[in-house]
Amino acid sequence: MENNITLPEIAEKLKEARSILIFMHRRPDGDTVGSAYGIKYAMPEKEVYCLCADDIPSRLQYISKAPFESCPDDFEPDLIIAVDAASPGLLGRFGDEIIDIKIDHHETSEDYAEYNYTDPTAAATGEIVYKILKICGATITPDAANAIYSAISSDTGGFRYSNTTAETLRIAADLCEAGADMAECSHMLFESRTQAEVRALSAVYANIRYFENGGVAVVNMTNEIKKRYNITDDDVGEISSIPREIEGVELAVTIRQLSNSPDRYKISMRSGRFVDVDKICALFGGGGHSRAAGGEISAQNPQQAERIVLKYAIDAYRNSMPKPR
Ligand SMILES: [Mn+2]
After folding, report:
1. Mean pLDDT of 98-116
2. Coil, helix or strand at residue 264
3. Neighbours of ion ligand 1 (CB under 5 A)
4. CATH tag for 7-190 (out of 2.40.70.10, 3.90.1640.10, 3.40.50.10170, 3.40.50.1110)
5. pTM of the full structure
Protein backbone atom coordinates (compact mmCIF):
# COMPACT_ATOMS: atom_id res chain seq x y z
CA MET A 1 0.00 0.00 0.00
CA GLU A 2 1.82 3.08 -1.22
CA ASN A 3 0.45 6.39 -2.46
CA ASN A 4 1.67 7.21 -5.96
CA ILE A 5 -0.36 10.39 -6.27
CA THR A 6 -0.86 13.46 -4.08
CA LEU A 7 -4.08 15.29 -3.21
CA PRO A 8 -3.22 18.28 -5.48
CA GLU A 9 -2.51 15.85 -8.33
CA ILE A 10 -5.90 14.16 -7.82
CA ALA A 11 -7.52 17.61 -7.71
CA GLU A 12 -5.83 18.49 -11.01
CA LYS A 13 -7.13 15.33 -12.70
CA LEU A 14 -10.65 15.97 -11.39
CA LYS A 15 -10.54 19.53 -12.70
CA GLU A 16 -9.34 18.43 -16.14
CA ALA A 17 -11.91 15.65 -16.55
CA ARG A 18 -15.18 16.57 -18.25
CA SER A 19 -16.77 13.23 -17.54
CA ILE A 20 -16.24 11.02 -14.48
CA LEU A 21 -17.35 7.56 -13.46
CA ILE A 22 -17.29 6.82 -9.73
CA PHE A 23 -17.54 3.34 -8.26
CA MET A 24 -18.85 2.69 -4.76
CA HIS A 25 -18.23 -0.55 -2.86
CA ARG A 26 -20.69 -3.42 -2.53
CA ARG A 27 -23.12 -3.34 0.38
CA PRO A 28 -22.80 0.44 0.18
CA ASP A 29 -22.44 2.41 3.42
CA GLY A 30 -22.76 6.12 4.14
CA ASP A 31 -19.09 6.74 3.47
CA THR A 32 -18.89 5.27 -0.02
CA VAL A 33 -22.25 6.76 -1.08
CA GLY A 34 -21.55 10.16 0.48
CA SER A 35 -18.05 10.32 -1.01
CA ALA A 36 -19.23 9.45 -4.52
CA TYR A 37 -22.19 11.83 -4.51
CA GLY A 38 -20.15 14.52 -2.76
CA ILE A 39 -17.93 14.65 -5.84
CA LYS A 40 -20.90 14.51 -8.21
CA TYR A 41 -22.85 17.29 -6.51
CA ALA A 42 -19.80 19.53 -6.16
CA MET A 43 -19.12 19.31 -9.91
CA PRO A 44 -22.53 19.94 -11.54
CA GLU A 45 -20.85 21.19 -14.71
CA LYS A 46 -19.38 17.74 -15.41
CA GLU A 47 -21.04 14.56 -16.57
CA VAL A 48 -20.72 12.28 -13.52
CA TYR A 49 -22.21 8.83 -12.87
CA CYS A 50 -21.98 6.98 -9.53
CA LEU A 51 -22.26 3.21 -9.87
CA CYS A 52 -22.54 0.46 -7.29
CA ALA A 53 -22.85 -3.31 -7.73
CA ASP A 54 -25.63 -3.34 -5.10
CA ASP A 55 -28.63 -1.05 -4.77
CA ILE A 56 -28.33 1.89 -2.38
CA PRO A 57 -30.26 0.95 0.78
CA SER A 58 -33.40 2.98 1.35
CA ARG A 59 -32.00 4.79 4.41
CA LEU A 60 -29.14 6.20 2.26
CA GLN A 61 -31.29 7.25 -0.66
CA TYR A 62 -31.63 10.75 0.79
CA ILE A 63 -28.03 11.11 -0.47
CA SER A 64 -28.25 9.37 -3.86
CA LYS A 65 -31.89 10.36 -4.52
CA ALA A 66 -32.39 6.98 -6.23
CA PRO A 67 -31.78 3.28 -5.51
CA PHE A 68 -29.27 3.09 -8.36
CA GLU A 69 -27.81 4.93 -11.32
CA SER A 70 -26.86 3.58 -14.70
CA CYS A 71 -24.69 5.25 -17.28
CA PRO A 72 -25.20 5.18 -21.06
CA ASP A 73 -23.60 2.18 -22.80
CA ASP A 74 -21.42 4.45 -24.90
CA PHE A 75 -20.23 6.51 -21.93
CA GLU A 76 -16.47 6.93 -22.12
CA PRO A 77 -15.41 8.82 -19.01
CA ASP A 78 -12.22 10.86 -18.88
CA LEU A 79 -11.67 9.60 -15.35
CA ILE A 80 -12.70 6.51 -13.39
CA ILE A 81 -12.54 6.68 -9.59
CA ALA A 82 -13.24 4.17 -6.82
CA VAL A 83 -14.11 5.52 -3.37
CA ASP A 84 -13.79 3.72 -0.01
CA ALA A 85 -13.20 0.33 -1.67
CA ALA A 86 -10.15 -1.42 -0.20
CA SER A 87 -10.00 -4.14 -2.85
CA PRO A 88 -11.33 -4.66 -6.39
CA GLY A 89 -13.46 -7.55 -5.08
CA LEU A 90 -15.51 -4.98 -3.15
CA LEU A 91 -16.58 -3.45 -6.46
CA GLY A 92 -18.60 -6.62 -7.18
CA ARG A 93 -19.40 -6.99 -10.86
CA PHE A 94 -17.30 -3.87 -11.58
CA GLY A 95 -14.21 -5.51 -10.07
CA ASP A 96 -12.60 -5.99 -13.49
CA GLU A 97 -12.95 -2.36 -14.56
CA ILE A 98 -9.78 -0.36 -15.00
CA ILE A 99 -9.70 2.22 -12.23
CA ASP A 100 -7.68 5.41 -12.70
CA ILE A 101 -7.72 6.57 -9.08
CA LYS A 102 -8.56 4.81 -5.84
CA ILE A 103 -9.34 7.05 -2.86
CA ASP A 104 -9.53 5.16 0.43
CA HIS A 105 -8.80 5.26 4.15
CA HIS A 106 -8.71 1.58 5.16
CA GLU A 107 -5.61 0.45 7.01
CA THR A 108 -5.44 -2.61 4.77
CA SER A 109 -6.05 -1.43 1.21
CA GLU A 110 -4.90 -2.91 -2.09
CA ASP A 111 -3.27 -0.82 -4.79
CA TYR A 112 -5.48 -1.94 -7.67
CA ALA A 113 -5.81 1.38 -9.50
CA GLU A 114 -3.30 3.19 -11.68
CA TYR A 115 -3.10 5.88 -9.00
CA ASN A 116 -3.76 4.94 -5.40
CA TYR A 117 -4.33 7.30 -2.51
CA THR A 118 -4.94 5.85 0.94
CA ASP A 119 -4.90 7.88 4.14
CA PRO A 120 -5.54 5.62 7.14
CA THR A 121 -5.53 8.65 9.45
CA ALA A 122 -8.68 9.95 7.76
CA ALA A 123 -11.81 8.99 9.70
CA ALA A 124 -13.70 8.53 6.44
CA THR A 125 -13.06 8.62 2.71
CA GLY A 126 -15.40 11.61 2.81
CA GLU A 127 -12.72 13.57 4.66
CA ILE A 128 -10.24 12.99 1.85
CA VAL A 129 -12.85 13.82 -0.78
CA TYR A 130 -13.58 17.10 1.01
CA LYS A 131 -9.90 18.07 0.96
CA ILE A 132 -9.61 17.25 -2.75
CA LEU A 133 -12.71 19.29 -3.61
CA LYS A 134 -11.36 22.27 -1.64
CA ILE A 135 -8.06 22.08 -3.54
CA CYS A 136 -10.09 21.92 -6.79
CA GLY A 137 -11.84 25.12 -5.80
CA ALA A 138 -15.15 23.30 -6.30
CA THR A 139 -18.27 24.85 -4.79
CA ILE A 140 -19.54 22.72 -1.94
CA THR A 141 -23.26 22.94 -2.72
CA PRO A 142 -25.76 22.07 0.06
CA ASP A 143 -26.29 18.68 -1.61
CA ALA A 144 -22.54 18.04 -1.72
CA ALA A 145 -22.17 19.19 1.89
CA ASN A 146 -24.97 16.85 2.97
CA ALA A 147 -23.37 13.92 1.13
CA ILE A 148 -19.87 14.44 2.52
CA TYR A 149 -21.15 15.18 6.02
CA SER A 150 -23.07 11.90 5.88
CA ALA A 151 -19.95 10.05 4.72
CA ILE A 152 -17.98 11.29 7.71
CA SER A 153 -20.81 10.99 10.23
CA SER A 154 -21.48 7.43 9.09
CA ASP A 155 -17.90 6.18 9.55
CA THR A 156 -17.45 7.93 12.90
CA GLY A 157 -20.75 6.70 14.36
CA GLY A 158 -21.97 10.28 14.49
CA PHE A 159 -18.57 11.67 15.57
CA ARG A 160 -18.34 9.33 18.55
CA TYR A 161 -15.72 6.71 17.56
CA SER A 162 -12.03 7.09 18.35
CA ASN A 163 -11.22 7.74 14.67
CA THR A 164 -12.84 11.18 15.07
CA THR A 165 -10.14 13.86 15.19
CA ALA A 166 -10.16 17.60 15.71
CA GLU A 167 -9.74 17.90 11.95
CA THR A 168 -12.78 15.67 11.39
CA LEU A 169 -14.84 18.11 13.46
CA ARG A 170 -13.40 21.14 11.65
CA ILE A 171 -14.35 19.63 8.30
CA ALA A 172 -17.82 18.78 9.66
CA ALA A 173 -18.19 22.40 10.83
CA ASP A 174 -17.26 23.64 7.34
CA LEU A 175 -19.84 21.29 5.86
CA CYS A 176 -22.53 22.60 8.22
CA GLU A 177 -21.74 26.12 7.06
CA ALA A 178 -21.99 24.88 3.48
CA GLY A 179 -25.53 23.67 4.14
CA ALA A 180 -25.36 20.13 5.55
CA ASP A 181 -28.52 19.31 7.48
CA MET A 182 -27.02 17.75 10.64
CA ALA A 183 -30.26 16.70 12.30
CA GLU A 184 -31.67 15.15 9.13
CA CYS A 185 -28.42 13.25 8.40
CA SER A 186 -28.24 11.94 11.98
CA HIS A 187 -31.84 10.86 11.87
CA MET A 188 -31.46 9.03 8.55
CA LEU A 189 -28.13 7.41 9.48
CA PHE A 190 -28.75 6.43 13.08
CA GLU A 191 -32.40 6.70 14.06
CA SER A 192 -34.17 5.14 11.13
CA ARG A 193 -34.73 1.38 10.95
CA THR A 194 -36.89 -0.84 8.80
CA GLN A 195 -39.13 -3.42 10.52
CA ALA A 196 -36.77 -6.10 9.21
CA GLU A 197 -33.84 -4.34 10.88
CA VAL A 198 -35.72 -4.30 14.16
CA ARG A 199 -36.31 -8.07 13.81
CA ALA A 200 -32.58 -8.44 13.13
CA LEU A 201 -31.84 -6.55 16.35
CA SER A 202 -34.09 -8.91 18.32
CA ALA A 203 -32.23 -11.84 16.77
CA VAL A 204 -28.90 -10.37 17.85
CA TYR A 205 -29.98 -9.58 21.40
CA ALA A 206 -31.44 -13.05 21.83
CA ASN A 207 -28.32 -14.81 20.58
CA ILE A 208 -25.33 -13.13 22.25
CA ARG A 209 -22.94 -15.45 24.05
CA TYR A 210 -19.99 -14.48 26.20
CA PHE A 211 -16.44 -15.75 26.61
CA GLU A 212 -13.43 -14.70 28.69
CA ASN A 213 -15.53 -13.50 31.62
CA GLY A 214 -17.64 -11.30 29.39
CA GLY A 215 -14.70 -9.65 27.60
CA VAL A 216 -15.59 -11.31 24.31
CA ALA A 217 -19.14 -11.40 22.91
CA VAL A 218 -20.14 -13.57 19.98
CA VAL A 219 -23.21 -13.62 17.78
CA ASN A 220 -23.45 -16.53 15.38
CA MET A 221 -26.15 -15.57 12.88
CA THR A 222 -26.95 -18.89 11.27
CA ASN A 223 -29.38 -19.40 8.40
CA GLU A 224 -31.64 -21.19 10.85
CA ILE A 225 -31.83 -18.10 13.09
CA LYS A 226 -32.35 -15.81 10.09
CA LYS A 227 -35.24 -17.99 8.99
CA ARG A 228 -36.76 -18.02 12.47
CA TYR A 229 -36.68 -14.21 12.65
CA ASN A 230 -37.68 -13.72 9.00
CA ILE A 231 -34.59 -11.68 8.11
CA THR A 232 -32.23 -11.63 5.16
CA ASP A 233 -28.46 -11.15 4.90
CA ASP A 234 -29.05 -7.50 4.08
CA ASP A 235 -31.11 -6.94 7.24
CA VAL A 236 -28.26 -8.13 9.46
CA GLY A 237 -25.64 -5.92 7.77
CA GLU A 238 -25.53 -3.25 10.45
CA ILE A 239 -25.58 -5.31 13.59
CA SER A 240 -21.90 -5.97 14.19
CA SER A 241 -21.35 -3.08 16.58
CA ILE A 242 -24.25 -4.08 18.88
CA PRO A 243 -22.41 -6.58 21.13
CA ARG A 244 -19.69 -4.00 21.73
CA GLU A 245 -22.24 -1.82 23.48
CA ILE A 246 -22.42 -4.29 26.34
CA GLU A 247 -20.55 -3.32 29.50
CA GLY A 248 -17.29 -5.21 29.83
CA VAL A 249 -17.15 -6.37 26.20
CA GLU A 250 -13.81 -5.47 24.59
CA LEU A 251 -14.13 -7.67 21.52
CA ALA A 252 -17.36 -8.26 19.61
CA VAL A 253 -17.44 -11.01 16.99
CA THR A 254 -20.32 -11.43 14.57
CA ILE A 255 -20.48 -14.49 12.34
CA ARG A 256 -23.01 -14.51 9.52
CA GLN A 257 -23.73 -17.61 7.49
CA LEU A 258 -24.47 -16.58 3.91
CA SER A 259 -27.96 -17.59 2.78
CA ASN A 260 -26.99 -18.36 -0.81
CA SER A 261 -23.71 -20.14 0.02
CA PRO A 262 -24.17 -21.78 3.44
CA ASP A 263 -20.56 -22.96 3.66
CA ARG A 264 -19.37 -19.33 3.58
CA TYR A 265 -19.33 -17.15 6.69
CA LYS A 266 -18.90 -13.40 6.93
CA ILE A 267 -16.96 -12.33 10.00
CA SER A 268 -17.18 -8.86 11.55
CA MET A 269 -15.16 -7.75 14.54
CA ARG A 270 -15.39 -4.62 16.64
CA SER A 271 -13.16 -3.77 19.58
CA GLY A 272 -13.04 -1.24 22.37
CA ARG A 273 -9.61 -0.02 23.44
CA PHE A 274 -7.07 -2.81 23.23
CA VAL A 275 -7.62 -5.46 20.58
CA ASP A 276 -6.40 -4.78 17.02
CA VAL A 277 -9.13 -6.52 15.00
CA ASP A 278 -7.47 -5.61 11.69
CA LYS A 279 -4.65 -7.98 12.67
CA ILE A 280 -6.98 -10.81 13.70
CA CYS A 281 -8.98 -10.57 10.48
CA ALA A 282 -5.75 -10.52 8.43
CA LEU A 283 -5.08 -14.04 9.81
CA PHE A 284 -7.97 -15.32 7.69
CA GLY A 285 -7.50 -13.03 4.71
CA GLY A 286 -9.69 -10.10 5.84
CA GLY A 287 -8.89 -6.64 7.13
CA GLY A 288 -10.17 -3.17 7.87
CA HIS A 289 -9.37 -0.84 10.74
CA SER A 290 -7.87 -1.52 14.16
CA ARG A 291 -11.28 -1.15 15.89
CA ALA A 292 -13.51 -2.44 13.08
CA ALA A 293 -12.62 -5.15 10.60
CA GLY A 294 -14.02 -8.16 8.82
CA GLY A 295 -13.46 -11.01 6.44
CA GLU A 296 -14.94 -14.23 5.13
CA ILE A 297 -14.18 -17.89 5.80
CA SER A 298 -15.38 -21.32 4.68
CA ALA A 299 -16.62 -23.91 7.17
CA GLN A 300 -18.78 -27.04 7.17
CA ASN A 301 -21.28 -25.68 9.67
CA PRO A 302 -21.82 -22.64 11.90
CA GLN A 303 -20.25 -24.35 14.92
CA GLN A 304 -17.06 -25.04 13.01
CA ALA A 305 -16.96 -21.45 11.69
CA GLU A 306 -17.25 -20.23 15.27
CA ARG A 307 -14.46 -22.51 16.52
CA ILE A 308 -12.10 -21.29 13.78
CA VAL A 309 -12.80 -17.63 14.40
CA LEU A 310 -12.78 -17.85 18.20
CA LYS A 311 -9.42 -19.58 18.22
CA TYR A 312 -7.84 -16.50 16.62
CA ALA A 313 -10.02 -14.00 18.45
CA ILE A 314 -9.53 -15.32 21.97
CA ASP A 315 -5.77 -15.69 21.48
CA ALA A 316 -5.55 -12.09 20.32
CA TYR A 317 -7.81 -10.95 23.15
CA ARG A 318 -5.63 -12.61 25.80
CA ASN A 319 -2.46 -11.16 24.30
CA SER A 320 -3.86 -7.65 23.97
CA MET A 321 -5.49 -7.08 27.34
CA PRO A 322 -3.38 -5.27 29.93
CA LYS A 323 -2.14 -7.67 32.60
CA PRO A 324 -3.64 -7.18 36.06
CA ARG A 325 -1.05 -5.92 38.54
MN1 LIG B 1 -15.09 4.32 4.96
Report:
1. 96
2. strand
3. 31, 84, 125, 155
4. 3.90.1640.10
5. 0.81
